[in-house]
Amino acid sequence: MKTTISFKSYISALLLSLAITLLILAVLSALFTFFNVSEKIINLSPTILFFFSSFLSGFFASRKTRRAGWLTGIIASFFYSIIVLLLSIIFSSGAPTPTSALKTVLYSLPFGIFGGILGINSK
């Protein structure tokens, strides 16, 4: 039984999730620029996009590793949320508080688990 972890699979899944996130973010930015959208939708869209991307990271990672979908989803969404937090620290004016960073990581895990389970069970 093979017990090694393929970090290459995780890295490619995380990069694919980040690329999709950036693509959706660019589309949303263009839509928000050219169309009149309520402030509530504008404020809520990054959160929804982050949770969707956590789902995708778990989904893609479990599709590549083909084992332990829930665990693969946890690992992938954990590292995805860490990457996004680091990018937000680098590109934003203020760093998130440790409490909000912990909440962000913990809230992303169920979406990664769900993505991992669906990814391992899809063809």
Residue share in helices?
Answer: over 70%
Number of helix segments?
Answer: 4
Average residue-wise pLDDT: 89
Strand content: under 5%
In angstroms, what is the radius of gyration? 15 Å
Low-confidence stretches: none
Largest sheet: none
Q: What is the overall silhouette?
A: globular
Q: What class do helices, strands and sheet pairing give?
A: mainly alpha
Q: What is the number of beta strands?
A: 0
Name the helix and strand elements from N-terminus to C-terminus, one letter apiece.
HHHH
> In whole angstroms, how far apart are the ends?
22 Å
Can you describe what's shown?
It is globular and about 45 Å long. It is 83% helix and 0% strand. The chain is mainly alpha-helical. It has helices spanning 7-34, 39-65, 69-91, 98-121. The mean pLDDT is 89.
Per-chain topology:
Layout (H helix, E strand, L loop, with lengths): L6 H28 L4 H27 L3 H23 L6 H24 L2
Name a few traits of the molecule.
83% helix, 123 residues
Give the gist of this structure.
This protein is mainly alpha-helical.
